[in-house]
Design goal:
mainly alpha; three-stranded antiparallel sheet; 2% strand; 25 helices
Length: 490
């Protein structure tokens, strides 16, 4: 009874304060929707046409069932995998966790959709969707990012933290919401992918909310009670065999002559053109996959020093987490053995030292993209006011693998999903949760006061356009501006 009372107060306090919590500022870390005639837009159009051809198949029936908008409609789609009923009555703690995640997720995705104005496929092509009865309700909502892929992936990540023994199947189910939105005609493929990234960003934000980890621990206990599920070991964080199996929950790499393969080829050429630019130089600086390099990269974002001597608790967290990002991609790499771009094209990379050692290794998915996205999510939980900037830097880190010629764009895209899956799984590990608490405490004690001074200074800083024109007062039009050496969305 006492435990239920605590949970009641936790849930209600969290939900009352939801509107006060900052939602992810998507314009600061997501790419813009593709422009007309761009390679990605062409790929989107092809996949839309391919999706239409599936509407009368079993996959089309599943896609129609996936086009749901409320938590109580999403949950039955995961119930068979979990083996339990996720209802407010039969598994109240799990439901409370998901309900809170849903409320914040709904706020976040709706705010994100308002930031863009991309037409939905059925509007753009003036063709009927798979669900014509809903068309008028959503005709004027932006297609980017996709609602179902965002929340479906978010629920999958949350449930993966609750049910680690069912993680692979849960993640696979969560990934399917993206293609379903394309088949239905309500979203383009790039909208679905942006939804995945926003879903993982929302999860990271949730872990910074006071009381959320309490909800999670009750939900995990609920699941163990209902199915007697136990983890094999909490020492170390995870072995290779315990990590989510990327073969199960990721789609296959693009087939030859597919739209996505053509898109990969176009992005490869675009990446080569950037090698002599600042982006190309940064891509080489990011090549080293190590604790110290990740600390260097994210120290620059945070404006503080993260190192073994300055922040031992955070440094230990990074050193134990970052290997998992790359390790979690190895099953799919070995299974598919997709040729890396420089191997397939017979051309040099922009960083020759790794060419021979990686020549016979698989390209899909990218371990660097997985690790950088994973570390950005972890750092976002430590430095709770810097998530948007951290994720933007992680996104750039992943794109560097395309620029150097070591990965195709789809390798990088799905590598980020692997990183978010590992991040969710880490919260089932007691040692990680304990070390995270130490890292958060260390960061607050060492850098919060400094950050407060900087924020005060930045609040009074002048605002400039991206072209360097100084404004008088607050911008009159919405967009991205520069204030205090940072890009700010208004």
């Amino acid at each position: 009874m006492y435990r239920k009372l605590i949970l009641f107060f936790l849930t209600n306090i969290l939900c009352v304060n939801l509107h006060a919590q900052d939602v992810p500022q998507v314009t600061l870390f997501l790419p813009n929707p593709p422009a007309a005639e761009s390679d990605l837009f062409i790929c989107d159009n092809y996949l839309y046409t391919e999706g239409k051809s599936l509407r009368t198949t079993e996959r089309g029936i599943q896609a129609k069932g996936d086009m749901v908008w409320d938590l109580d409609d999403f949950l039955p789609l995961f119930a068979d995998i979990m083996g339990i009923s996720t209802s407010a009555i039969k598994s109240s703690n799990i439901y409370s966790l998901l309900d809170y995640g849903d409320r914040y997720g709904q706020l976040s995705i709706k705010a994100a959709i308002k930031s863009y104005s991309r037409e939905r496929p059925y509007v753009y092509f003036n063709e009927p969707s798979l669900i014509p009865e809903l068309e008028e309700d959503y005709r004027y909502d932006s297609s980017y990012p996709a609602f179902q892929s965002c929340l479906g992936w978010l629920y999958a990540l949350l449930l993966a933290e609750v049910c680690p023994d069912k993680m692979n199947d849960i993640l696979k189910r969560g990934e399917l919401f993206g293609p379903s939105t394309v088949i239905s005609g309500y979203n383009f493929d790039s909208d679905a992918y942006a939804g995945y990234l926003l879903g993982s960003a929302i999860l990271s934000r949730l872990h910074t909310h006071s009381g959320f980890d309490g909800l999670l621990s009750y939900a995990q206990a609920d699941y163990k009670r209902l199915v007697s599920a136990t983890r094999a070991s909490d020492d170390p964080y995870f072995s290779y065999e315990e990590l989510p199996n990327s073969i199960i929950y990721l789609p296959e790499p693009p087939a030859a002559n597919s739209a996505k393969n053509e898109y990969d080829l176009a992005k490869y050429e675009e990446g080569k053109s950037l090698r002599r630019t600042r982006s190309g130089i940064r891509a080489i600086e990011d090549v080293e996959y190590s604790t110290d390099n990740f600390c260097r990269i994210y120290s620059e974002v945070l404006g503080v020093t993260i190192s073994a001597s300055a922040t031992p608790a955070i440094y230990e967290l990074v050193s134990r987490v970052h290997p998992l990002g790359n390790a979690a991609t190895q099953m799919a790499k070995g299974y598919y053995m997709r040729k890396r771009p420089y191997v397939q094209m017979g051309e040099p990379t922009s960083y020759s030292p790794d060419e021979e050692s990686l020549r016979e290794t698989g390209s899909y998915p990218s371990g660097h993209a997985s690790g950088s996205w994973l570390m950005a999510l972890v750092f976002s939980e430590v430095a709770r006011t810097s998530q948007d900037a951290l994720l933007a830097r992680a996104y750039t880190f992943g794109q560097g693998r395309v620029i150097t010629g070591y990965h195709w764009q789809t390798d990088v895209d799905y590598g980020r999903l692997v990183g978010s899956a590992v991040y969710a799984m880490l919260h089932t590990n007691k040692e990680f949760v304990s070390q995270m608490a130490k890292a958060v405490r260390e960061y607050k004690e060492k850098y919060t006061a400094i950050s407060s001074v900087k924020q005060t200074e930045e609040a009074d800083a002048p605002i400039y356009t991206l072209q360097g024109v100084r404004l008088q007062g607050t911008p009159a039009r919405r967009g991205i501006y520069i204030k205090g050496n940072k890009k700010i969305a208004y």
